[in-house]
Structure formats: C-alpha cells, structure tokens
Specification:
The protein has 762 residues and is mainly alpha-helical. It is 50% helix and 2% strand. The protein has 32 helices and five strands. It has helices at 8-12, 22-28, 31-40, 42-62, 67-88, 120-131, 177-194, 211-216, 224-237, 248-251, 255-270, 304-311, 315-330, 348-361, 363-371, 375-389, 396-410, 413-418, 438-452, 461-471, 480-493, 496-500, 506-522, 528-536, 538-545, 551-563, 603-606, 630-638, 676-683, 689-709, 714-723, 745-761; strands spanning 281-282, 288-289, 607-612, 618-620, 736-741. It has a three-stranded antiparallel β-sheet with strand order 4-3-5. It has a two-stranded antiparallel sheet with strand order 1-2. Strand 1 and strand 2 (288-289) form a beta hairpin. Helix 16 packs parallel to helix 19 (438-452). The two termini are 38 Å apart.
Length: 762
C-alpha cells in the first residue's frame, strides 16, 4: 500500500532503529524486495529515498550534535548505499534523483528558498560534502570545553579540518578510528552515487559527463578544495606496514586502510575531465581546454578536482605524492623472511590510475618524476605487475594500464636516460638472472610478455615495442641477456609465415629494426653485446633482405604456418635460471570474475611523432612529412582493403582492429590474402642499410680473428668489438623519432570502463 510521506512513525523505523551495521542493512534489505517495491509500489520507494536524503540534509544543517543523530546519519547512508543501484539499473528510474520533488522543500522553509527547487541528487551530494567535515563526526572539533551546542557547520572553514598532512596542509590530526569509519561510510555512498556510470553503455563521446561527478566537482560544493586535499593526502601518507611489528596487521584491524581504499577510488572517479580528447578540444560550453592546465591559464577545467590537481606545483608536494605512491606500489613486492608478516595492500590498480591521471593532468609533475632516478621506484613495481599478471586473463586491464604508463613516460628523453641506472634491487621475479641496468630488466620482461603471454595481450605488442623504440637512442651497454632477447624477437617476427599471415605483422619487424638502428647510430660505443648478437644472428637480416615475394613462396609459407600453428615459443631463446624466491606467473583461479574492456585504440591513435633536434628539443612531425620512418610510409600500403583508407596517405591505418592480428592458427587468413605487390610495397622500405653496412665491415674482421687465433671464446671477440669503431663507415645518422602518447577519446573511454571494472570487482 502507498504510505503517506507525512507518516513519520512509519518512515522513522528505517533509520531511528538500533545500531545496524552495513552488513545488516544488506542482509535485511534483499535485492528481490527492493525490486518488488520498485515495480509494485513505486511511490513508497520514491518516498523512502526522499525521506532518507531529507534526514541527511537536516543532519548537515544541525551538525548532528547527539549520538542519536549520528546514528541516523549512518543508517540513512547505509540504506541509500543499498538502494541506489536498483534505481540506476532501471532506465525509467534513472532520472528520479534529478527531478525536483513537488512540495519537498524543508518544513518551514519559505517559498523563495532555493533549496526547495533543488533536484534530490544535488541536495544529497551537498549534504554528504558537509557531513565529511562535520566536527565530532568526521573531523576533530577545534572547540575547547564541552558545550552542548554543536559548532555551526556553516561557519567553519573546512580547510582547517583537512584529514591528513601533505599537500597544502602541514598539520596531521590525531588518528581517530571512529572518524575514519564514518568517513568511509560516506565515501561508499558517494561512490555509489557516482556509479550510475556503470549502468550505461560506454559512450565514445568524451564530453558525456557523469552528472553526479560534474555537480559534486563544481563550485556548488564549497568543500571541494579541502576534500580534494584530504583524499590525496590520506592516500599518499598511508603506511600499511604498521609500526614495524611483524604480524601487527593480524592483531589490529586497520580502519585507515578501508578509508584509504575508498579515498583512492572516489578520487580517481572524480578526476574526470571533459577534455578526455587531445588538448584543445571544444568542451560542452564551446570553449577550449587542454588536458593539463598550467598556472598561466586563468580559468582551468570546470571540474575543480582536475583543476586543483593540475595546479599543484611545489617541489615538496610533488615529492610527497611521488614518495607516497611509489611506497604503496612497492608494498606488494616487499618480501620478508617471515611469510605474511607484513600487510599487502590490494589497491595497486587504483594507485596506477591515480598516477596516470597525475602525469596526464599535471605536466610539471611528470617532469618532476623524470627529473631524478625516483622514476625507477615507479618503473620496477609496474614491471613486477606486468610480469606477474601476464598469464592471468582476468588481469588484462592491469597489463594495459601498466603499459600505457610506460608509453607515456617513454615519450620523454629523461626516461630513456634514467633506464641506464644499474638494476640492483632484487625483487623476486620469475625472469632469467642477469647483471645489467633497468633497461635490461624492461627488455627481458617485455620479451617474456610477448613470447609467453596469452592471446588477449597481442594488441599490446605494438605498444611494448614502441616503448623500446622510444628509449633505444639513449641505452648504453645492454647486457648479453637482453641483446639476445631482442634478436630472438626479430627472429620470431621475421619468419615468412608470420609476416604473411596478417596485414600488420611486418610493423613489428620495422619497430625492431628501428631499435637496432638507433643503438648502432647513437650508442655504438658500449653496446658490444648487441653488436655481437647481431653478428651471430646475421642470417636473420640476410633472410629479410632476400624475402621471397612471388605468389608460390607466399603460399608455401602460409602452408608451413598451418602445420606449425604456435607462433613464438621460448624454446630457442636460451632461458636462463630464474631468480631465487620467484613464482611463475599464475593463471586466473577458476571462477575468477573477468571484467569486459573496450578495445584500445591502435598505436597510431595513441601516439604522435616528434623528432628530436640537435639541442634535444622535440618538434612535432606531421604525418605527411617526407622524413617519416619507413614504418609509417608502409602503413597505407600495408593495411588490408577492409580497414584501409589507403589513398589518403593518412596516418590512420596502423591497426585498429586488434582481433585482426591473431598470431595463432585462428589468424584471419580467410578474410585477407597477402599478394606479391603488398609484400614488395613494404619490403623495399625495410631499414636494413645501417645493419648491412655494419655486418659488411665487422663480419670479415671477426671471422679473421677466429681463424687467426682458433678462437671459440666469446670474450676475445667482445673485447675486439668494444674497441672497434664505425665512425665514417655508417650511413648518415637518421633523425631520432619519438612516438609520444597523446590523449584521445578512445583511451579516455577505456580508462573509464577499466576503472569502474576495478572498483566493481573490489
């Protein structure tokens, strides 16, 4: 039966009751009952929502001085957290919170009061914001003495009540677990409000904003700045280890950890920017915004959280954020002698999204990260996660975000330079033992992902190799292990059956040749291991140069493919002994939930080319530039008819349909057939000149040493190569091309679906 809104005795029983935990609410209010009320007596559901919001609004007004009022707030918060998803899942109900409820102005309010005309959603969000800075409920009171009246919640300056020291706030309030619990409950409700996005199909329109987020992050929310600072500081200041006492986390429950997790999730959801497309795209109001606002820009994004994030500029703030994020990302890697003696955090994926948004929205932060070798404290955990997650199909999103962050970093010269730092941290990883630099670690792990990962990782191969190309001009002294890995990849990718079995496969060969050319031209001295590996595998280069292009050879190669469907194995890549204490990458546990992710854009959409000039500055290269690398000019010719806009000479045809690039026997041979003309169109552009010249000069000399000294010992040859020089013998060095990540609507939508998938599963 419909119940009148004025029947307080009936409605009060929902929140005035004894203490209920959030678990109780979920148990007492089963899904089937909420749906039944929604279908059979919608007016009761509407009244319940409206009354619960009204209670929160009243509490925010009064500052909930009494224990009873505090309890009512928690009960209403839990009830709304429980009910909202059932409002969102029904298309007919979705607009309910955005409608104004007739006659729902607060009792006794005069008609001219703007509150009465507010949509329910806005009233709810403003009440949550007020309650997050409510003295004695979610923050420490600054009042001395115990007066019965609550502080006037509207007169307090919430910037003095920031939850944790850090950015823009020096004072660390004493830990209060009750406040932490209350904040967590309110943040859960806030996250539930924002989660409407999960019930809508992902839109490729980057300007379709989440109305809940949009309102909460606007100037209507007077607590935006202190809340932004509180969430950021709580996350970055968190230390999960806990006073250094082993097993401490098993004895005490850590209320702060729950708060930190929810703070991180709310923060990444609110950092949603309408300029999710490339810089300078028109936003909703027709003005243009760039993805990262500089201090010179007086307006900045409408979303205040993005605005504040983009304006952080003090070195000590950057240091605090970077140290905090790096410390937390490293936490799951920390091995102790006592198993399970330290707490392992579970929110590393949210941290990676936060780090991504920091770098993307605040270029000064990105440059700060790359200024010192501190960037390696972010790199090593990311490589650890990539290596650990590669066999597990349910963690394919984690693989993508790790690779995206490295792609973003690799667009800056400093990243390549930092990789030369020797790698001495011994994080147990299931990779061959090597002595070398962080660049060696990166190459060894990328090789492993490509050769032993699963099908769903294949769209990432281009990204992985683009990262290696971007850093290659700066790499000094690769180890013999990583040099062999690079040559093994070239060997695998340049077999004729692989080159002919999909329209885009030859691009991988172009990337690897570009890596070798960059190192030979710019870092020949000190890279004798790589030069020696190239000499030993010289037949691979000769086979590429003499690739048969006649129709019968193409057919024979494809027949061979049918008999040997497994593309790339690790059998002939001389795997060494793995590191001590490491476990192989595990597959997903049976029954693991997998989130669906939309397809990521091809590498040409993800990046734009820049040429490095003499003084190290970068100049953007237009796609029609004649100095394009051979890879790019081969693109139009190399794309299949179905996905090509070949006549345009545009840079759009790399590969947009990852499913086209199946390496296994399920390859799309049926839809696409290689022709002699097609093979010739890119074969003539293979950049082999530099390598062929190197082989021409060095091979006879190395052979002579072997014959003269009867040598089978590699160290003599390496010694000779170390002192050799090719000055004046190689072709003129080519300009260095860097493919820098560029923001685009495709990745913006991908990040949104990935982020909500993570939050939903957690």
């Amino acid at each position: 039966q419909p119940v009148e809104a004025t029947d307080d005795a009936f409605w009060d029983q929902f929140w005035a009751d004894t203490v209920t935990s959030v678990q109780d609410v979920f148990a007492l209010v089963p899904a089937a009952e909420i749906r039944a009320v929604r279908e059979e007596s919608p007016s009761n559901l509407a009244t319940l929502c409206y009354k619960a919001v009204e209670k929160l609004v009243q509490a925010a007004e009064s500052g909930c001085p009494s224990q009873t009022e505090k309890q009512i707030v928690l009960n209403c918060t839990r009830l709304l957290t429980r009910i909202l998803p059932y409002i969102f899942e029904d298309a007919d109900w979705r607009g309910f919170f955005w409608s104004t409820v007739p006659g729902a102005g607060r009792a006794g309010a005069d008609e001219g009061d703007d509150e009465s005309g507010r949509p329910l959603a806005e009233s709810l969000l403003l009440a949550i914001a007020d309650l997050l800075f409510c003295p004695e409920f979610t923050v420490q009171s600054h009042r001395k003495g115990s007066l019965d009246t609550a502080e006037d919640i509207h007169s307090i300056d919430s910037c003095e009540y920031i939850w944790e020291a850090g950015v823009g706030f020096a004072h660390s309030p004493p830990l209060n677990y009750v406040h932490d619990l209350n904040r967590t409950e309110l943040l859960k409700l806030l996250l539930t409000c924002f989660s409407e996005a999960m019930y809508l199909a992902p839109s490729s329109e980057s300007n379709v904003l989440n109305p809940w987020v949009q309102f909460f992050c606007s100037t209507d929310n007077r607590h935006a700045l202190p809340l932004f600072t509180s969430l950021l500081n709580v996350v970055c200041a968190y230390d999960p280890v806990g006073y250094g006492i082993p097993y401490n986390h098993l004895l005490f429950s850590d209320y702060r950890e729950q708060l930190v997790e929810h703070a991180g999730q709310v923060l990444i959801v609110m950092l949603e920017h309408e300029g999710g497309t490339a810089a300078g795209s028109p936003t909703l109001d027709g003005t243009t915004t760039t993805a990262a606002m500089d201090d010179q820009d007086p307006v900045g994004p409408d979303n205040l959280f993005v605005n504040y994030l983009s304006r952080i500029h003090r070195e000590e703030d950057f240091q605090f954020i970077l140290k905090g994020v790096a410390h937390l990302l490293t936490n799951p890697l920390v091995q102790t002698y006592l198993p399970n003696s330290t707490k392992k955090i579970q929110f590393h994926q949210e941290l990676l999204v936060l780090f991504w948004k920091l770098c993307d929205f605040n270029k000064k932060f990105l440059f700060f990260v790359l200024k010192s070798s501190d960037v390696l404290d972010i790199l090593v955990p990311i490589l650890f996660y990539l290596n650990d997650a590669q066999a597990d199909q349910s963690r394919v999103g984690l693989m993508h975000i790790g690779v995206f962050i490295l792609l973003l970093l690799s667009g800056e010269r400093n990243f390549g330079v930092r990789l030369n730092k020797p790698y001495s941290v011994r994080v147990p990883m299931d990779i061959p033992v090597f002595t070398g630099t962080h660049a060696d670690l990166l190459i060894v792990i990328f090789h492993k992902i490509i050769t032993s990962g699963h099908q769903r990782l294949q769209p990432l191969f281009d990204c992985l190799l683009t990262i290696v190309v971007n850093v290659s001009p700066y790499l000094k002294g690769l180890s013999i292990v990583s040099a062999n890995k690079l040559l093994h990849l070239l060997e695998a990718f340049s077999t004729s059956w692989f080159l002919f079995s999909a329209s885009q496969n030859h691009h991988l060969v172009f990337f690897l040749l570009e890596v070798f050319n960059n190192i030979i031209q710019y870092q020949f001295d000190g890279n004798s291991n790589l030069v020696y590996a190239i000499i030993r595998k010289r037949n691979v280069f000769h086979q590429l140069a003499n690739l048969h292009t006649d129709p019968s050879s193409i057919q024979r190669a494809l027949q061979r493919k049918k008999t040997f469907p497994e593309p790339i194995s690790r059998t002939n890549s001389q795997e060494g002994v793995s590191m001590k204490g490491s476990r192989p990458a595990a597959h997903a546990e049976p029954g693991t939930l997998k989130i669906s992710l939309i397809t990521t854009p091809g590498i040409d959409k993800l990046t734009e080319k820049s040429q490095v000039s003499e003084d190290g500055t970068m100049i953007s290269v237009q796609p029609t530039d004649p100095s394009q690398s051979p890879l790019d000019s081969s693109r139009a010719a190399g794309a299949s008819d179905t996905e090509s806009n070949a006549g345009t000479g545009d840079d759009e045809v790399f590969y947009d349909k990852p499913e086209r690039r199946r390496l296994s026997s399920t390859s799309c041979v049926s839809q696409w057939t290689p022709t002699s003309d097609w093979v010739l169109s890119w074969k003539c552009k293979l950049p082999l000149q530099t390598i062929m010249r190197l082989l021409q000069v060095l091979v006879p000399q190395v052979e002579k040493i072997c014959i003269d000294k009867g040598l089978t010992d590699e160290s003599e040859i390496l010694k000779f190569l170390q002192h050799g020089t090719l000055v004046g013998l190689l072709p003129v060095p080519h300009p260095i091309l860097i493919r820098k990540y560029q923001a685009n609507s495709g990745t913006a939508v991908w990040f949104r679906t990935y982020m909500w998938g993570v939050i939903y599963l957690r």
